[in-house]
């Protein structure tokens, strides 16, 4: 049987999927019935995920608390503390087959916990769909590329809309970012990504995306912590990329090292889309196929 992907150019899936993000966000913003399944205001919530999903969980948790919806903790599924009286647990996973997520949900359901478990899942056929109390399905945002782009940001768009945010400007910013990418951004020796509040998760995700796609040297930190050691890595030919608002004077401190400061006056989630394009361009320039990154698969499934 002929493989339908056999003749596709390297990165073809990633390119199509990242370019579709504004459309995906519009769709997620309109999913009011699904948004109503997310934890109610005042509930104590844990959000779990692995890799990219964990970083989106961090952003959701910070946004939910900032909006006054209640205590919200984000955990890597392998390191979660579930004995803290949570009213609800949100499990975010593209594939719904990640071992750590399935094991944690199974333990929760078997422990007699009263916490309602909500799955935000890309693959409607995954085992997690039947394990959770409520499943929010985003099959339109699922991906063929191993490297996640649109599922992660679409889930975050859903979360932001559920908190009452208007995503109109973010969607417009994403379209602009996709159409206007500075080609010099893909040529740095090293990248450090910074964020504050909810954009710390975006910074961690940006660093992961660049590593996965192009095998690049990347780091990520809360912006205020960057001065406490990590700024030592800044130098000519290296980029420090800030998502959202920066601490006063940090841009000048980076410039004094000879490093390049990057900050865009757009919605930070849209700036992550710009980074996706840079990661793709960098991977292709290095002769890599980001749809099939080294040592990675679409889902981490551990053997018994």
From TrEMBL:
Record keywords: Aminotransferase, Repeat, Transferase
One function term, GO molecular function aspect: glutamine-fructose-6-phosphate transaminase (isomerizing) activity
Pfam (any one): SIS
InterPro entries registered for this protein in UniProt: GlmS/AgaS_SIS, GlmS/FrlB_SIS, SIS_dom, SIS_dom_sf
Ranges of residues in domain SIS: 33-177
GO biological process: carbohydrate derivative metabolic process
EC numbers for this chain: 2.6.1.16
PROSITE patterns: SIS (PS51464)
Top-rank EC class of the record's enzyme: transferase
Protein name: Glutamine--fructose-6-phosphate aminotransferase [isomerizing]
Natural source organism: Microbacterium azadirachtae
């Amino acid at each position: 049987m002929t493989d339908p992907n056999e003749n596709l150019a390297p990165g073809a899936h990633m390119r199509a999927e990242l370019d579709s993000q504004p459309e995906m966000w519009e769709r997620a913003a309109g999913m009011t019935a699904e948004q109503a399944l997310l934890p109610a205001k005042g509930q104590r919530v844990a959000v779990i995920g692995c890799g990219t999903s964990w970083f989106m969980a961090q952003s959701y948790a910070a946004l939910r608390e900032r909006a006054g919806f209640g205590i919200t903790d984000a955990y890597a599924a392998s390191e979660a503390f579930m004995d803290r009286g949570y009213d609800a647990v949100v499990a975010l996973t593209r594939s719904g087959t990640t071992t750590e997520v399935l094991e944690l949900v199974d333990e929760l359901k078997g422990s007699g916990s009263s916490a309602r478990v909500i799955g935000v899942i890309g693959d409607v056929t995954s085992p997690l769909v039947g394990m959770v109390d409520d499943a929010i399905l985003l099959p339109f945002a699922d991906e063929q590329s191993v490297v996640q782009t649109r599922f992660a940001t679409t889930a975050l768009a859903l979360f932001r809309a559920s908190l009452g945010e208007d995503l109109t400007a973010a969607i417009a910013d994403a379209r602009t970012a996709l159409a206007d990418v500075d080609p010099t951004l893909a040529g740095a020796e090293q990248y450090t990504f910074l964020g504050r509040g909810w954009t710390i998760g975006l910074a961690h995700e940006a660093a992961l995306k660049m590593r996965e796609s192009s095998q690049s040297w990347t780091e990520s930190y809360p912006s205020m912590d960057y001065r406490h050691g990590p700024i030592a890595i800044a130098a000519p030919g290296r980029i420090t990329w800030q998502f959202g608002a920066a601490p006063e004077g940090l841009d000048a401190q980076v410039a004094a090292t000879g490093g390049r400061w990057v900050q865009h006056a757009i919605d930070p989630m849209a700036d992550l889309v710009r980074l996706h394009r840079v990661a793709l361009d960098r991977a292709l320039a290095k002769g890599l196929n980001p749809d099939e990154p080294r040592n990675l698969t679409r889902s981490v499934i551990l053997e018994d």
